Amino acid sequence: MSGIQKVILFTTLVANMVALTAEAGETLRLGTTTSLYESGLLDYLLPVFEARNNCKLHVISAGTGKAIQLGKNGDVDVLLVHAQEAEVTFVKEGYGLHRTELMHNDFIVLGPKEDPAGVRTAVDAAAAVRKIYNTAQPFVSRGDDSGTDKREKTLWSQSGLKPDASWYMETGQGMTATLMIADEKNAYCLADRSTWLFNKGKIRLELLFQGGKDLFNPYSVIAVNPQKHPHANYLLSKVFIKWLTSPECKKLINDYKIGDSQPFFTSSDK
Amino acid sequence: MLSLDREFLSIVMVSLSVSFASTFLSVLLAIPVGIWLATARFKGRQITITILNTSMSIPTVVIGLFLYSLLSRQGPLGGLGILFTPAAMIAGQCILAFPIIAATITGGVSNLGNKPYIAARLLGASHTRSTFLFLREAKLIVMTSALAGFGRVFSEIGVSMMLGGNIRFYTRNITTAIALETSRGEFGLGIALGIVLLTVAFLINAIAYSFRKAR
């Protein structure tokens, strides 16, 4: 390679690097959960905010456990998660401010069409998991400390049930990956409705049980406390939270469809 | 299936820029270290080379975790604020590439011997000038080592995911995009992206080879 060619190649790459790292306008870092991110809602919603405020939203999606840890470490500015107990602790320990319930959907029990455990006839979620326990049917769990995982673990523990490793599998992965595994194994699984809507065309598992307050799934937005992390973009976080709870944004959320179904419902003002 | 849209181009450009930058920086550091290890004689030389060779086997996720703990706001280098930016990915990939590049240079230079350097010194050149002349002879070794280093970092995911955060249009590269699409059940798209990665890697190796011949 001639010297000139090298210089040109190098300059192009450096220019590209600079372009990559230079940030137009402000950035706001949002830590969210994989199940919310994979529903596609954020890719639909956030560009509106970015354009309105001439900023860039950097979305880092991870299991709820990791997202909250990112908030504690101050590596993100705002959280959008669904793990009530962990959220409340987060705020109580002084890491978060302005926790606001934004929207909700529900968890559902999916399983094989044949439904060997008889989950379809359960009266509530607790009964549904007890039927699975009693028949020792394969069950695939997130096992990753996510919001969905925490709820699922609660369903077992509140009935005093300890699932056995012979039929209970923990994937340690996101909702869609876990669904794929459950589908492969024709097993039962607890999923959030939006991931189900997104993927139901691809898998043969069916919706066997829904409803009840045990399966209620609220999402909240929380700003990272600038007292703990002074560099956090607190002002923009507040603008973001205000916008998310505005009537305009609520309409956008309620209008969002996966196929023909509405995956998220905004919370009424308290 | 793959349209040449803005998102696809962004993914490929992030992969290329980050890997080129980290390979380039690692080569800069590895040349003096590799030459020194090949030519110097000191007590801990053998163990140093062994450790260097071993560090080629460090899992990428481990390097990612280690740097995350340093670069997180909670960590000692948190003030730099480079976590979840391409800069952090480059830093991690440098740590990844350096051992391979240095080890390849050390091996190649040991084989080459230091005759070109000694000849230059004997004719009165300074250490720096002699090193430069020696380097001209050793160009092929450096090229091979750079390609080896590039190959390692271009296809890695542990560092990119942990330190970049897979942020759309910013730190999402080909490998983290493959992970995302796979976790979404989009296996076809994941494979297509894998083929793109291999094609780009092939093109780069082909270009590098043609430069070699042109010499």
Number of helices of chain A: 11
The second-level CATH architecture of the largest domain in chain A is 3-Layer(aba) Sandwich
Please summarize the sheet with the most strands of chain B: none
Catalogue the unreliable spans of chain B. Answer: none
Summarize the structure in short.
The complex is a heterodimer of chains A (270) and B (215). Chain A is α/β, with parallel strands linked by helices and 270 residues long. Chain A is 43% helix and 23% strand.
Fold and architecture overview:
The complex is a heterodimer of chains A (270) and B (215). With 270 residues, chain A is of the alpha/beta class. Chain A contains eleven helices and ten strands. In chain A, strands 1, 2, 3, 4, 5, 6, 7, 8, 9 and 10 form a ten-stranded mixed sheet that branches. The model of chain A has no long low-confidence stretch (mean pLDDT 90). Helix content of chain B is 76%, strand content 0%. Chain B contains nine helices and no strands. Chain B has helices at 6-39, 45-54, 60-71, 86-112, 115-122, 127-154, 158-164, 174-183, 187-214. In chain B, helix 3 crosses helix 4 (86-112) and helix 4 packs across helix 6. Chain B is globular. The mean pLDDT of chain B is 89. Chain A binds chain B through residues 1, 10, 13-14, 16-17, 20-21, 29, 34, 38, 43, 56, 58-61, 73-75, 173-174, 176-177, 179-180, 199, 202, 229, 231, and chain B through 13-14, 16-18, 20-21, 24, 72-74, 78, 81, 83-87, 165-168, 170, 182-185, 211, 214.
What's the SSE blueprint?
The complex is a heterodimer of chains A (270) and B (215).
Chain A: H1 3-21, E1 26-33, H2 34-38, H3 41-53, E2 55-62, H4 64-73, E3 78-81, H5 84-92, E4 96-111, H6 125-135, E5 139-141, H7 147-157, E6 168-170, H8 175-184, E7 188-192, H9 193-199, E8 206-209, E9 216-224, H10 234-244, H11 247-255, E10 265-266
Parallel strand pairs in A: 1-2, 1-3, 5-6, 5-7
Antiparallel strand pairs in A: 3-9, 4-7, 4-8, 4-9, 4-10
Chain B: H1 6-39, H2 45-54, H3 60-71, H4 86-112, H5 115-122, H6 127-154, H7 158-164, H8 174-183, H9 187-214
